[in-house]
Structure formats: C-alpha cells, structure tokens
Amino acid sequence: MFPLIQRCCFNTPLKLQKLTGPSLLLYGKNETTWSSLASCLRRDAHPLSTALSLKPASVYTTKLQTFHTSLPAFKKKTPAEPEAESQKSLESLKDSPKPALYLSLGGLIPFVAVPLAMAVQGAFHPELASAQVAYGAVTASFLGGMRWGFALPENSPAKPDWLNLANGTVPALLACQALLFKDVTQGAVMVMLALGIALHYDISLLPTYPRWFKVLRVVGTMVMVLSLLATVALKAFLEGEQSDDRKIRQSTN
C-alpha cells in the first residue's frame, strides 16, 4: 500500500522506489533502517511537493499579469467626431486663394438660377433646362481637362501617365454624350454622372489636389448635382400641370 501511495502522491524518483522494496522487508527487524529511509523520503519529497504547489500559482500569476497588461488593447479608440471633421474641412476653405474661391462660387450661379427661375414662374422652360445641361457638360469637360494641366508640370505629384491623362478625358466624353440626348432628363443624368466621376478621380483615385481645392470641389459638385435634380423634378411636376391645364382648356372649348 505504501509504494502505491508514494507513486501517486509524491511521484518519487525511481531510485527511491527501489529503496522502499527491500526496506519494507526489514520492517520490524531493523528500526534504524526504517527511520533513515523515512527521513530520506521526507527530504526528497519536500522539494518536490513545494515545486508542485508553486507551479500552478506561478502559471496563474503569469496569466493574470498577461491579462492585466493586455487590458489596454481592448480599449476602443474614440473615433473622430464627424462634426469636427466637417468643421475642419470648411475652415480649410479659408486657405483657398480668393480668385479661385470667388470664381468657383460665381460659376455655380447658372446652375442655381435655372431651377429657381422656373420655380418662381411656375412654368417649365425647355430652353433654360437645355442651357443648364449644356453648361454642365462644359463644366464637366473643364474639370476633366484640368487633370492634364495638373499632371504636365515637371514638379507635379501627378505623372502624365495613362491613368491621369485617360481619366481626364472620360468626363469630356460623357459630357459630349449628354449633348446628344434630345430629352433634357437623360442629358441631365449623363452630366451628373460625368460630374460624379470627375469628383471621384480628384478626391480618391488619382493624386490629390490641395485640401482646400478638394473641399471646394465637393461643395461645387453637390450644388451642381442638386440643381440638375431640381430641374428634372420641376420638369416632371410642371409639365404634368401644364398638360392638365391644356386638357381643361380643350374640354371647355
């Protein structure tokens, strides 16, 4: 029984297990041999039991220290507030040169004036809508060709490669297609597509312009697209009312 307890609990070395066999045979005959063997077992088993008892504690301590040191990794970084970002973007317009700012804002007047005039008069004018689409096609061609002027100088961050120069011609091609449509709505949609692609090139795809110019491009494109959408909506709404009025007049006559 004692060898079994010794192997399970203390896991004594093989040398001690060999000593216990003959020593048990001498039990009762030589008490001094048994006492010396017991003291030997206590001396050999004490460090072993101490190591066994300290091993789990050291493992748990290491795990706790690792968990404690890894706690900052779980802290979420506070994202930048969108209001602060938008405020910084609007403040960057102050860095823009005055001629560029005033000319860009002045170029938006024809876009805004057309739907505003039709809304005030309460009537849809196809010639004004066609002029707005033509002006939008010219503006999209200008924004596309501006990439050529940005990429050609030697010290420019944009290289005159296929990506820059070919993408600079895409808005002009879409603008030309917009002028071929007889329907104002189709032409306005094509112009909006050209303006959106030009903005995408300038903001995210190709080498970027200065920050103030990018903000100016976003604001200008939003105003142009919203003006074209307003013209399309007024066309659908006012033309429906005009057709109803014509039917009423024909019925009364």
Walkthrough of the structure:
The chain has 253 residues and is an all-alpha fold. It has two domains: 2-68, no CATH class; 86-252, no CATH class. 80% of the residues lie in helices and 0% in strands. It is built from ten helices and no strands. Helix 8 (162-180) runs antiparallel to helix 9 (184-205) and helix 9 (184-205) packs antiparallel against helix 10 (211-252). The protein is elongated and about 110 Å long. 17% of the residues are buried. The model is unreliable at 8-31, 45-55 and 66-77 (pLDDT under 50).
Number of strands: 0
Mean pLDDT: 76
Give the count of helical stretches: 10
| Largest sheet: number of strands, sense, barrel closure | none
Percent of residues in helices: over 70%
Provide the low-confidence segments as ranges: 8-31, 45-55, 66-77
The structural class is mainly alpha
User: SSE order in H/E notation?
Assistant: HHHHHHHHHH
Radius of gyration based on Cα positions: 43 Å
Task: Describe the global form.
Answer: elongated
Distance between the amino and carboxyl termini: 124 Å
How many domains?
Answer: 2
